[in-house]
Amino acid sequence: MLSQVYCSGSQPFRQRLLPWVQSTALSRSRATDRVQPSAIRHVRSWSNIPFITVPLSRTHGKSFAHRSELKHAKRIVVKLGSAVVTRGDECGLALGRLASIVEQVSVLQNQGREMMLVTSGAVAFGKQRLRHEILLSQSVRQALHSGQNQLKEMAIPVLEARACAAAGQSGLMALYEAMFTQYSICAAQILVTNLDFHDEQKRRNLNGTLHELLRMNIVPIVNTNDAVVPPAEPNSDLQGVNVISVKDNDSLAARLAVEMKTDLLIVLSDVEGLFDSPPGSDDAKLIDIFYPGDQQSVTFGTKSRVGMGGMEAKVKAALWALQGGTSVVIANGTHPKVSGHVITDIVEGKKVGTFFSEVKPAGPTVEQQGEMARSGGRMLATLEPEQRAEIIHHLADLLTDQRDEILLANKKDLEEAEGKDQVIRRRLAAPLLKRLSLSTSKLNSLAIGLRQIAASSQDSVGRVLRRTRIAKNLELEQVAVPIGVLLVIFESRPDCLPQVAALAIASGNGLLLKGGKEATHSNRILHLLAQEALSIHGVKEAIQLVNTREEVEDLCRLDKMIDLIIPRGSSQLVRDIQKAAKGIPVMGHSEGICHMYVDSEASVDKVTRLVRDSKCEYPAACNALETLLIHRDLLRTPLFDQIIDMLRVEQVKIHAGPKFASYLTFSPSEVKSLRTEYGDLELCIEVVDSVQEAIDHIHKYGSSHTDVIVTENEKTAEFFLQHVDSACVFWNASTRFSDGYRFGLGAEVGISTSRIHARGPVGLEGLLTTKWLLRGQDHVVSDFSEHGSLKYLHENLPVPQRNTN
């Protein structure tokens, strides 16, 4: 075994470092010790990768059961395959990828974790150097007088792999040293062979060396000593070189992880993870979690472009490590879009690659739930309208018949939120607690809304929107069809579940529901009632409640299973989902900054009622008033005084806009931002000089949600209604009317401020899309050419009338 320690900086730097290492060595705990949160170092943010400061405490002995637990991993081995380290031309190193990996390892090391690298790349790096030397050793005269093409055609002898390794090992380590130096981290090189693990004394020496390096906060970089290992069998994977088998490094990483009682082994390759069939085949699906025994159902494909281990060797090594108590993730380290944060994403518990676990979940995976929702949704869409309506009516009946059971489950959620679970209580503000609460009146209102949805669903799916006679006996129809599978993510609002379920049933869509932890008991019973209603026509699986530990960001990546994401919750939740969604459209609004403009010709009797209802009736709602715009002529009038007095009585905190503050000697606290959604009994008041200025203010600071004018001047009102570019614009009406139930839609899945597909309160119609049906009789396009026998008619045909009963 060869060992060499590389420290960043010069000898004086290492001398200055030694006392610090000695003083802190006693306080640093090993992988089996508990690390208190205060012991985790906080370092400056020199990286664009976010820091995670978590208590790293774990007793080794059993692997993690879930991805979410990986954030507690302290001792981590990262294995870099040849395909990750080498360039695409297989001659030299992929410096960009390597630099990114070093950065991520450094971030984790500086969080207080103990990182180890098992790396390939010496052969490729040595091949590059030796090839260069061979070219230089050619006749200087030939090199000077030959053309470039001729130079390229020079014969390069086959390079022996061990010689390449000997030539490349020092350069590879020097490269690692230079990169880790940028983060003030020391690195140590350890070269091993199989004999080092078979000899008990050498094993103890290796173990002791590694523990000592980790104790001194040094990153060990381990590799097989390819310069002295027996020659590998010739193969053509790496052109011109007999490659040392990557299987040695796979088994080395697994053996090292178990020997060092490592919490996590990350194996980076050139594929996303483990597939149920060879990657690239039509039916190949990435396996999110792999369990021991599942290898019988997996077909292994060809090996990577470099190396000889292949996925089968990686799986065997991973299962061996898992049996030894080390968790394993196999992931892609070469993809340009993810390689820059793949290691840190894995440690954060994100759904990256294939996670090896010994614990099988009791229920289906979220991928399986997505498939069930897709299949169930298609069956639901084929039902007769009367059958879908019958399901919704049955669900409405269950909400009232099972009222006591629902309220008992909701009581458990409220008790946990308000008293037993301090973590949840700190996270839930008073407005969210109000949203969490269910009551008899809420359930009765839900039942009424569901019956409205059932009535409107009689003529929705399959409704003909347009008919055109293209030519004789060639007719075209545009019909309404379901969107597909909806993912609705909601927090602290269990009443959202039956509303969304009924709309999905009416529109024939499959549905995945992800509720907040604070409403676990309420959501569970409401979902069971929805499935009970669906079962009367055999489509129980069309609606699925995601109960696994899936993070919202991971759900947003299921672009092959989900067609539309609808967030229901805080503006922060909506923004996070919009940011996380990759390739899946998101319907919703990130903020509900609703305005009310009180015109100079407003009615005294109407203004205070409208302001009170819009702001105070339910301040946590997205359609609650947030900014009150008052015409300048109303200042210091009885109307203005009445508004202020009413707000004081209702205990509304007032924030003054810049112009409003300039009119007052002693003003309320000046608003920090005119673009604020308070979600509480707080209100911004600003002064404007005209209706046009009010419109300009709304367009600049609003969120295109709901905006209102209060005036008795019809001309001014119509000007406001036509010129304000928001989803909902009202005249002399409360902002709280912006709601699917109040609009007569029965319920809503949310309020959309986007400009594509659906806008405003989104009910049944917003969950439908269209498809085209063309019925012909042996029609071909060539018949309609210049010399063809047929001509286009393009006649509009009458559309069947909707059933409005």
Automatic annotation (TrEMBL):
<dbReference type="InterPro" id="IPR041744">
    <property type="entry name" value="G5K_ProBA"/>
</dbReference>
<dbReference type="Pfam" id="PF00171">
    <property type="entry name" value="Aldedh"/>
</dbReference>
<dbReference type="GO" id="GO:0004350">
    <property type="term" value="F:glutamate-5-semialdehyde dehydrogenase activity"/>
</dbReference>
<comment type="similarity">
    <text>In the N-terminal section; belongs to the glutamate 5-kinase family.</text>
</comment>
<dbReference type="InterPro" id="IPR015590">
    <property type="entry name" value="Aldehyde_DH_dom"/>
</dbReference>
<comment type="function">
    <text>Bifunctional enzyme that converts glutamate to glutamate 5-semialdehyde, an intermediate in the biosynthesis of proline, ornithine and arginine.</text>
</comment>
<keyword id="KW-0641">Proline biosynthesis</keyword>
<dbReference type="InterPro" id="IPR016161">
    <property type="entry name" value="Ald_DH/histidinol_DH"/>
</dbReference>
<keyword id="KW-0511">Multifunctional enzyme</keyword>
<comment type="subunit">
    <text>Can form homodimers/multimers.</text>
</comment>
<dbReference type="GO" id="GO:0004349">
    <property type="term" value="F:glutamate 5-kinase activity"/>
</dbReference>
<dbReference type="InterPro" id="IPR001048">
    <property type="entry name" value="Asp/Glu/Uridylate_kinase"/>
</dbReference>
<keyword id="KW-0521">NADP</keyword>
<keyword id="KW-0808">Transferase</keyword>
<keyword id="KW-0560">Oxidoreductase</keyword>
<dbReference type="InterPro" id="IPR005715">
    <property type="entry name" value="Glu_5kinase/COase_Synthase"/>
</dbReference>
<dbReference type="InterPro" id="IPR001057">
    <property type="entry name" value="Glu/AcGlu_kinase"/>
</dbReference>
<dbReference type="GO" id="GO:0055129">
    <property type="term" value="P:L-proline biosynthetic process"/>
</dbReference>
<keyword id="KW-0028">Amino-acid biosynthesis</keyword>
<keyword id="KW-0067">ATP-binding</keyword>
<comment type="pathway">
    <text>Amino-acid biosynthesis; L-proline biosynthesis; L-glutamate 5-semialdehyde from L-glutamate: step 1/2.</text>
</comment>
<keyword id="KW-0496">Mitochondrion</keyword>
<dbReference type="InterPro" id="IPR019797">
    <property type="entry name" value="Glutamate_5-kinase_CS"/>
</dbReference>
<comment type="similarity">
    <text>In the C-terminal section; belongs to the gamma-glutamyl phosphate reductase family.</text>
</comment>
<protein>
    <recommendedName>
        <fullName>Delta-1-pyrroline-5-carboxylate synthase</fullName>
        <ecNumber>2.7.2.11</ecNumber>
        <ecNumber>1.2.1.41</ecNumber>
    </recommendedName>
</protein>
<keyword id="KW-0418">Kinase</keyword>
<dbReference type="InterPro" id="IPR016163">
    <property type="entry name" value="Ald_DH_C"/>
</dbReference>
<feature type="domain" description="Aspartate/glutamate/uridylate kinase">
    <location>
        <begin position="74"/>
        <end position="332"/>
    </location>
</feature>
<dbReference type="InterPro" id="IPR036393">
    <property type="entry name" value="AceGlu_kinase-like_sf"/>
</dbReference>
<dbReference type="GO" id="GO:0005524">
    <property type="term" value="F:ATP binding"/>
</dbReference>
<dbReference type="Pfam" id="PF00696">
    <property type="entry name" value="AA_kinase"/>
</dbReference>
<feature type="domain" description="Aldehyde dehydrogenase">
    <location>
        <begin position="366"/>
        <end position="635"/>
    </location>
</feature>
<dbReference type="InterPro" id="IPR000965">
    <property type="entry name" value="GPR_dom"/>
</dbReference>
<dbReference type="InterPro" id="IPR005766">
    <property type="entry name" value="P5_carboxy_syn"/>
</dbReference>
<comment type="pathway">
    <text>Amino-acid biosynthesis; L-proline biosynthesis; L-glutamate 5-semialdehyde from L-glutamate: step 2/2.</text>
</comment>
<keyword id="KW-0547">Nucleotide-binding</keyword>
<dbReference type="GO" id="GO:0005759">
    <property type="term" value="C:mitochondrial matrix"/>
</dbReference>
<dbReference type="InterPro" id="IPR020593">
    <property type="entry name" value="G-glutamylP_reductase_CS"/>
</dbReference>
<dbReference type="InterPro" id="IPR016162">
    <property type="entry name" value="Ald_DH_N"/>
</dbReference>
